[in-house]
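Need a sequence for this fold. Nothing fancy.
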């Protein structure tokens, strides 16, 4: 009898654009319905090979670097399993504002103030460093997003780990 353990790791990311006076503390008070008009992009992301290898390293304690930074960039390549970094990082990644879990889902909310990572965003990722050198996952937005001093942004990731039946 084959009793191989199987699991699925799935990521989803939402990109919100808010007015310049919105803070993360205020955004946390909004319901999903109240945030809906600010949603600019939503979709699944690709969990990349180097991210899976980092998860294994964390499991066996050969590395203790967790995924702490959200990076954004202007790259145009479609994410691929072999990606080890973003294609083109804008500035450096910033520390994830709030990391938490519920059941088998990890959440990574990152707030970008009016002065953070301004430019035309086309991609995002979660990494162990501000340089984006060990990505967990990467997403190419469905269209470009202009982040500047007239807006704030929230990149909200959910990473789900689930058992899969045969």
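Here you go.
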């Amino acid at each position: 009898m084959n009793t191989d353990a199987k699991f699925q790791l799935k990521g989803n990311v939402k990109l919100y654009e808010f007015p310049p006076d919105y803070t993360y503390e205020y955004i946390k008070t909004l319901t999903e319905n109240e945030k809906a008009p600010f949603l600019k992009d939503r979709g699944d992301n690709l969990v990349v090979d180097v991210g899976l290898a980092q998860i294994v390293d964390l499991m066996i304690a050969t590395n203790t670097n967790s995924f702490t930074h959200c990076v954004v960039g202007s790259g145009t390549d479609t994410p691929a399993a072999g990606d080890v970094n973003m294609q083109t990082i804008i500035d450096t990644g910033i520390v994830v504002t709030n990391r938490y879990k519920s059941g088998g889902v990890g959440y990574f909310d990152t707030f970008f103030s009016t002065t953070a990572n301004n430019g035309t965003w086309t991609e995002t990722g979660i990494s162990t460093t501000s340089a984006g050198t060990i990505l967990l996952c990467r997403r190419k937005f469905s269209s470009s997003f202009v982040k500047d001093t007239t807006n704030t942004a929230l990149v909200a990731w959910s990473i789900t780990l689930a058992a899969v039946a045969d």
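For context: The longest strand covers residues 135-147.
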